[in-house]
Structures are given as structure tokens and as C-alpha cells.
């Protein structure tokens, strides 16, 4: 049976959808309780950037250019975004890529549509916004959607919004990103990444030529 990235990734859902079948890589006491009331336990303290970078295959600054679609992965609502790569920290992605976040719309018991997130985030990313992304290549979703998909982890620290003007040209954005404090922090974290995180997932660093 093929195990998807969401089943390998960093969280265990205790109070929701036992049928999802997320594997138990959860061996730490570090927990987070999102606004939905779910309890998630992570394999490591992902507030530590060194763990985030070590767990991810491709880490980069990018601009949201389009919200592509809402869909599902392992019965969880997710959203796909088109992202223009601005600056690579780990890996060598170029051009536009598709990033998946584990947040999306679902229908509650009253039949009302609501935004559902597993990490406490209550807003979607918007076109024009600039973020740092720590992602892993998602083979299952790539097969499902027919295009290369890079998934964010289940912890909110796997993407960070940057205070960079999205109306700048690509070259200007690249300069601004390199000068950004958060980018430099992640670059320093990459130099000291915790490669022990790779034992929890098959990390693939993708280099688009």
C-alpha cells in the first residue's frame, strides 16, 4: 500500500477522522492545539528552524501568483497554490511550482462550508504575498493531480509570510528576499540543519533545470 506524504508528515490527528490512518511517528511530548480543537503531536519541535529545514527537501522564498484549487488529500481538505520561486535556500527550483497547504474548505454537520486547518491557521494565502516555504515533494498528490506538487508540513512554521512588496519585479523581489531578516535566519538554519529529521521521511531535494 502506498503511504502518502500526509501519512508520513509531522502530525498525528487524535480527535478527527481515524480513517485517515496517519502513521504513528509521534514520539515526543511537543504538542499544538489548533483553533479547531484538534490535538496534534509532532515528531520534533518545529518551532526550531533547524528541524524544519532538515525535514524539508526544498526550501525557498516565493510569491503566491494564483490559488489553483481546493481538493482533498487523505480525506483532508487542502489548497493548491501556484508559486513563483524567488530565492532558493535548499534545492534548485525555478519558475512556477505548485505548493500544497493542509487547509481548505469542508462542510460541517449543518451543511455549512467552513475553512478547516490542522495547524490553527485560519486564513488562506493570497496572490501577491511573499512567503518562505519548507516543502517536500509529494508523489501521491503529484500522481493524483497530474503535476508536480510540493507539500508544506503540518506545523505553521513550515511557511512564513515575509514583509516584502509583492508588486516588485522578479529581480527586485530576489534582492529584497536576500536582504530579508527571516530569509537570513533560515539560511543560517540550513547551515546547521538537523539532518536527523530525514529519518522520518524520504527527503528529496528537487532541482529544476
Model description:
With 209 residues, this protein is of the alpha+beta class. It has a single domain (5-200), classed as OB fold (Dihydrolipoamide Acetyltransferase, E2P), CATH 2.40.50.120. It is 19% helix and 34% strand. The protein is built from five helices and eleven strands, in the order αβββαββββββαββαα. The chain has helices spanning 5-8, 49-55, 139-145, 170-179, 181-191, and strands spanning 11-13, 31-32, 40-42, 58-73, 76-90, 96-101, 103-107, 113-117, 130-137, 149-152, 159-162. The strands form three sheets. Strands 4-5-6-10-9 form a five-stranded mixed β-barrel, surrounded by four helices. Strands 1-3-2 form a three-stranded antiparallel beta sheet. Strand 5 (76-90) and strand 6 (96-101) form a beta hairpin. The longest helix is centred in the C-terminal third of the chain and has 11 residues, at 181-191. It is globular. Mean pLDDT is 83; it is low at 10-38.
Q: What is this structure's SSE topology?
A:
Layout: H1 5-8, E1 11-13, E2 31-32, E3 40-42, H2 49-55, E4 58-73, E5 76-90, E6 96-101, E7 103-107, E8 113-117, E9 130-137, H3 139-145, E10 149-152, E11 159-162, H4 170-179, H5 181-191
Parallel strand pairs: 6-10
Antiparallel strand pairs: 1-3, 2-3, 4-5, 4-9, 5-6, 7-8, 9-10, 9-11
Helix pairs in contact: 2-5
Q: Can you write the helix and strand succession as a string? A: HEEEHEEEEEEHEEHH
Strand order of the largest sheet: 4-5-6-10-9
In CATH, the architecture is Beta Barrel
* Helix percent band: 10-25%
Tell me the CATH topology. Answer: OB fold (Dihydrolipoamide Acetyltransferase, E2P)
- Distance from N terminus to C terminus (CA atoms, Å) equals 32 Å
Total domain count: 1
Approximate strand percentage: 25-35%
Shape: globular
Mean pLDDT: 83
